[in-house]
Description:
Helices cover 27% and strands 22% of the residues. With 373 residues, it is α/β, with parallel strands linked by helices. The longest helix is centred in the middle third of the chain and has 18 residues, at 171-188. α1 (10-25) runs parallel beside α2. The chain has helices spanning 10-25, 42-50, 61-69, 87-93, 102-114, 136-147, 171-188, 203-206, 222-226, 335-343, and strands at 5-9, 30-34, 55-58, 76-78, 96-99, 119-125, 152-159, 194-196, 217-220, 244-254, 282-286, 298-299, 304-309, 314-318, 328-333, 348-352.
Amino acid sequence: xxxxxxxxxxxxxxxxxxxxxxxxxxxxxxxxxxxxxxxxxxxxxxxxxxxxxxxxxxxxxxxxxxxxxxxxxxxxxxxxxxxxxxxxxxxxxxxxxxxxxxxxxxxxxxxxxxxxxxxxxxxxxxxxxxxxxxxxxxxxxxxxxxxxxxxxxxxxxxxxxxxxxxxxxxxxxxxxxxxxxxxxxxxxxxxxxxxxxxxxxxxxxxxxxxxxxxxxxxxxxxxxxxxxxxxxxxxxxxxxxxxxxxxxxxxxxxxxxxxxxxxxxxxxxxxxxxxxxxxxxxxxxxxxxxxxxxxxxxxxxxxxxxxxxxxxxxxxxxxxxxxxxxxxxxxxxxxxxxxxxxxxxxxxxxxxxxxxxxxxxxxxxxxxxxxxx
Length: 373
């Protein structure tokens, strides 16, 4: 098999989606599956839909086009504010988009009129993360402009957390978002179909017994793909953490000193992570590096220690003396490492369990439940 590669278990992705969809359905919240970390891979998107996701969300138009070309017809929402240069394509391939700029919304409206359609607008509200969003005090006026604009329809509002400033969602913030939804309806008239409370970081709130108010949607990528809650890193009970496995090949193995006896010309180089200099440690070099993934986001297999990485080499220390050149090593990835690896042109994704097996009994690892307790 080719190396490096990512082994993708679609059955585990379906299972993770089905699990979180079931947990949130009891709370009146639907799941929108986010496929940006897997570059809009159609088979992974289908696994989310098979697992019960109400629709898909993407940040890049090229990924949406790939989904459509693969025959995926479910609703797809663009969750990054559209570029003015792409409004015609956005309207053509996306039913709706998240927006913050009235100039962009006006351009989307004009594009929709040219295409004889109506494009859905969800307004993103700034709730503390300081990435994208309309200030709450300006939301009503902008919503009114959208309502008055032909070619677009106000479909909802949403918020984002933990992405830029690390601001976690709280019950108070979710209540405030619900109040904003009610205020917008009171000022502008149309019922908001979607009040999206955020991303995977919202799961502890959503499953914590709080009243969800108007929140009826979460945009979930990391929780489905990796089976974890991003803020704490805890495994979500009943979900798989190993739907994705990165496989790399060993290209050198020896017992050279792990502490190089050199003078550093660049004083930043000593930041390399060093393992203890013991006779029992063998140094391995694998054919993968920063150009392929976030090396710091890889979980080392038992008995192995991360030493460092360059653009195309990963250096680790191992206690396993039997490891030889040509051997394969398997790594689990965090969200950043997964995103980089899926986008790397030299890494092939190999799919397993491509279609659901009727009456299949799935097993899963144990983990801390974030579910209703």
